[in-house]
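A favour, since you know our structure tokens better than I do. Could you add the entry underneath, on a fresh line?
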Amino acid sequence: MSVIVRLVVFLTLALAGAASPVVTESQQMARLSLTQRTTASDIMAKGRAHYDAPYASRALVIRDTIAHGAPLVNSGIGYTATISVGEPPQTFQVHVDTSTPFTWVGGNTTYRPSETSIETDPQSTVHYPYGIGSINATLYTDKVTLGDLTVPNQTIGVATGVDGITGDGVLGIGGSFFPLTGPSFTDNLDAQGTVYNVALSFEPSASGPSKGELSFGDVDSSKYFGSITYTSGYYWAFNQSIAYDSSSILTNGAGIVHSLTPYIFLATDAFVQYKDHIGAQLDSTNNLYTITAAQYQTLKSLYFNIGGTKFELTPNAQILPRISPNSSEYYLAVNDMSALDASNASGLDFVLGYSFLERFYTVLDTDNGRIGFATTSFTNATFN
């Protein structure tokens, strides 16, 4: 019997305070509650480094409605989970990455081979590039557990050299397009039939320590309005058209959603049109674009045409959180694709970071080769 796997990412600008999980009796969902501690000044301080694969500091908690909860920590602009590896288990705080299938550990915390560890090829080292750095790793298979979800023979990398990346490692939930590393953690859950449906959701909050949720399970109709619009997609990649107000700036472009960056990157020709419409200027001190308070008052919405449905990204959703409410400048969450390393942006017309995902319920249905979006109570939020 085919096992349906859905990965759902739901990032919302939740009000301060812990979100109360809502689960119907028919659902079997493992959920991760999130707390985001990244501030606007953290984003500005990192500047260009945040374009590619931001890593800094946050906290979360996993909740498993099948069994019990377990702690998580989000270490930065990207979301992290606590996983255990081996037997006896060793714990690692790893970034959850929708853009890669590769899971690796050993960044800050040393990996110690255990009775379940098998080194696949002691003579070879895998080099894996990221936007702000890279890692070299030796491949092992080992038991990997996230909450109550376990893959007994997961291929992982054990870092032998890390350049430009902080944290213990990465839990890759993207497509298995890197043959050396084998199936991703979620691919293996699918193959072994551990969970019938897999869902992921994030709910960062508006201010202070953000609250949120990362969940495994079926889609939760209490999280979105109306119906979910699906379009063909492979893992987190799909096609869409984009307009600024009524002016088309991108037609049927291909790109991805990316859980590790706050930014929305557009192909250079599309971004130049957007920038010219609003009069944005580059702040060379941090490589971000800014608009004045007066320009913000006339800023129009961006419209993302996905699967025949227009999804509106309001002016408020196009700016980064403000360092000071009295500041005369607004930093944009939208940026030029050329800011990304060419090897990471090749062939992409857009990258939708969590400034976009915070506003929409996002469903990845890998079994049916499609990705879906729906509006939420935070789509038109006026706080940032």
